[in-house]
Specification:
There is one protein chain. The protein is an alpha+beta fold. It folds into three domains: 68 residues, Arc Repressor Mutant, subunit A; 82 residues, YebC, transcriptional regulation domain (Alpha-Beta Plaits, 2-Layer Sandwich), CATH 3.30.70; 71 residues, Alpha-Beta Plaits, CATH 3.30.70.980. The chain is 42% helix and 22% strand. A four-stranded antiparallel sheet has the order 3-1-2-8. Strands 5-6-4-7 form a four-stranded antiparallel sheet, sandwiched between helices. Helix 2 packs antiparallel against helix 3 and helix 2 runs parallel beside helix 4. The longest helix has 16 residues. The protein is globular and about 50 Å long. The two termini are 18 Å apart.
Length: 240
């Protein structure tokens, strides 16, 4: 698939380890998903997915409960889901997904980060055509052959199954996410190392060391923005 998912997640986890930033962003994402329908994951698939993802990031129960209670209450706070596309050093490609209650602030902040870090904003569609929406599910305690057999017996489609360190990573179409996870749960698998709907680049590029440092600063600064939920890109980072 061009990149090791666990390496990406471990890098983000170490970056977020000493902050509450990731939890605050999950709080907003849970609130928005709950407001889209019933604040019950059994009847709200969007909420169910966000809660599964939050679990893999060890989001505290208090954060989750607070967001759900807010959604159940009379809060009229509304958020817009916006996607921005742009280019980093050496023509690298970046997608930025945001949840915001102030669109003017968000677009100004995102554009400023691109401009100050050797990048540039693009128009809608200028980058996303080079990425594929993908479901990524990671588990431990099974071999790739066992997972392959399990999914085939359940008559489920998938793109790829890879062994990454101690995890088995399943890549599939987004619409297969819940079906695959349900099949794994029926097989007794209740813990997931990864549970994501993401955007994977069709091709990854390697940057020279000096350009890579600039690119990493650009991505880190984008991720630090209050309204930014996720950043996707097509740059291959060396394994540490």
């Amino acid at each position: 698939m061009g990149r090791k998912w666990n390496n990406i997640k471990e890098k983000k986890a170490s970056k977020d380890a000493n902050t509450s930033r990731v939890y605050a962003k999950f709080g907003i994402e849970i609130y928005v998903a709950a407001k889209k329908g019933e604040p019950d994951p059994e009847s709200n698939q969007a909420l169910k997915f966000v809660l599964e993802r939050a679990k893999t990031y060890n989001v505290p129960r208090a954060i989750i409960d607070r967001a759900l209670e807010k959604a159940k209450g009379n809060s009229e706070e509304s958020y817009s889901e916006l996607r921005y596309e742009g280019f980093g050093p050496s023509g690298s490609m970046i997608i930025v997904d945001t949840l915001t209650n102030n669109v003017n602030r968000t677009v100004a902040d995102v554009r400023s980060v691109f401009n100050k870090n050797g990048g540039s904003m693009g128009v809608n569609g200028s980058v996303s055509y080079m990425f594929s929406p993908t479901a990524v599910i990671g588990i431990e305690g099974k071999t790739s052959d066992e997972v392959l057999e399990l999914l085939m017996e359940a008559d489920l489609d998938f793109r790829d199954i890879t062994e990454e360190e101690e995890s088995i990573i399943i890549y599939a179409e987004p619409e297969q996410f819940h079906a695959i996870q349900s099949a794994l749960k029926q097989a007794g698998i209740t813990e997931f190392t990864v549970a994501e709907l993401t955007m994977l680049a069709q091709n990854y590029v390697t940057l020279p060391e000096d350009e890579l440092a600039k690119f990493e600063k650009l991505v880190d600064t984008l991720e630090d923005l209050e309204d930014v939920q996720r950043v996707y890109h097509n740059v291959e980072f060396p394994e540490e």
